[in-house]
Amino acid sequence: MSRKLLIFSVSVGEGHNQVCRALQEEWEEHGGEAEIIDVFSLVDTETASRLKAAYFICIKKFPLLWDGIYKMTDLERMGEVIQPLLKFWWRKQLHFLSDKECTCIAAVHPLATQVASLMNQQTPDSNIPLYSVITDFSTHRLSLTSCVSGVFLSEKEEAAELQMVYPHCRFYPFGIPVKKVWEEQTEKQLIRKKLGISSGKPVLVVSGGGEGLTPEKKIKKLLQKDRQAWEVYLFGGKDHEKKPSRQIINGGSVLISKPFTPDYVDYVKAADLVISKPGGVSMAEAVSSNVQVGIISPLPGQEKENRRVLASYHGVHIIHRRTVLSDLLNKTDKRPVFRKGRGNPRKQIVQAMIGKEEVYTTAKAENMAEQFSNKYNDFPIG
Q1: What are the two backbone dihedrals, phi and then psi, of residue 206, each rounded to the nearest 5 degrees?
Q2: pLDDT reported for residue 306
């Protein structure tokens, strides 16, 4: 039987979907079979719709409430508190894994990890290894359960600290996996020629995410006060299919609204600057393309944590109302380069799951735990 990977995800963000596809792509290149499972597809439609609606209402209309929920669920042993709820909502699928023949499970969201852990516990004599794949730049505690045998995360220092606290688990600081297309290096001018970008203006790409949450008004205000005219491509959700495709901004910048299409990757690689909310995957994709990155309007909870960590890296800028975008292009930056000298996260993760990669050891962890605490405790938010 060929190796089979089950990838548990949650359909509340395109970033998680991209990581699932990246893992699926790499696993299949290693000769195995991979199946992506949205945990919301395993509950009744009404429950799934209510849970997703509650999430989006919180982040859009009640951000302080969501921030509180995020912090509360990140407390120690909170997974044990919510397990009865999960057992009730997923009660019809508790034995889902009984009929699945698989080598291992990868969960790419804290909720997906909790659901996979619950199902693993309900499966008699189950020895299926469960891995958490962290799709942000810090780890939420719901991704750490007693069933998890390995965690793939971004930061070496955090891996060191967590290894000391959770000795039953193995921590691999490989980074956030992105699809192979993001790692392919192409000359910027060749990509611009392919896309028909020839105005000579610096190119700004704005990512609104699959839900189109990046604030367009804030971007326009930044463009209006900049002495430099830009060619701007604003990518968003389906709403952008209905908006005017081209707008002239005071100051001479041209803003073109586009829905997400497969050539989004090329636009990012053609850009001088990419501005986005600090979703873990969108940030990982941008920095993989070696472009300057601006962080704007983080959602409460995990995105603020991402901003905290990313603010220490070369080429990552916190955007606020006084920012002059053109100044970022020539700004002296002595901060460390993100992921310099490290390998390919996607390949390393799959190799570890099939047993071909050395674990991040406790001995290595001991040397770095104190460094992590000193670096990130009370880190100032820009």
Answers
A1: -115, 125
A2: 93
Q: What is the per-residue pLDDT across 318-340, written as a single tens digit (0 to 9) for each?
A: 999 899 999 998 888 888 877 65
Q: What percentage of the chain carries pLDDT values higher than 70?
A: 88
246-248, strands of its sheet edge to edge: 246-248, 254-259, 231-236, 203-207, 273-276, 292-295, 316-318
**What pLDDT is recorded for position 135?**
95
Q: Are 290 and 314 in contact (CB under 8 A)?
A: no
Q: What is the pLDDT averaged over residues 144-166? A: 93
3-state secondary structure of 230: coil
71 CB-near residues (< 8 Å, 6+ apart): 301
pLDDT in tens, 113-125: 999 999 998 887 7
Q: How far apart (Å, rounded) are the C-alpha atoms in residues 382 and 360?
A: 32
Please report the pLDDT score of residue 250 as a whole number. 82
pLDDT, tens only, 265-275: 999 999 999 99
Query: How many CB atoms are located within 10 Å of the residue 258 CB?
Result: 17
CA distance 291 to 326: 14
* Average confidence (pLDDT) over 41-55: 91
Length of the chain: 382
- Give the residue among 6, 288, 270 at the shortest CA–CA distance from 131: 6
* Tokens read off for 12: 């509340």
> Could you tell me if 235 and 265 are in contact, meaning their C-beta atoms sit under 8 angstroms apart?
no
Let me know: does 144 contact 166? Beta carbons within 8 Å: yes
- The C-alpha atoms of residue 382 and residue 374 are separated, in whole angstroms, by 18
Two tokens at 163? 């290894």
* DSSP track, 114-169: HHHHHHHHTSTT----EEEE--SSS--GGG--TTEEEEE-S-HHHHHHHHHH-TTS
Looking up tokens 């081209």, which residue turns up? 246
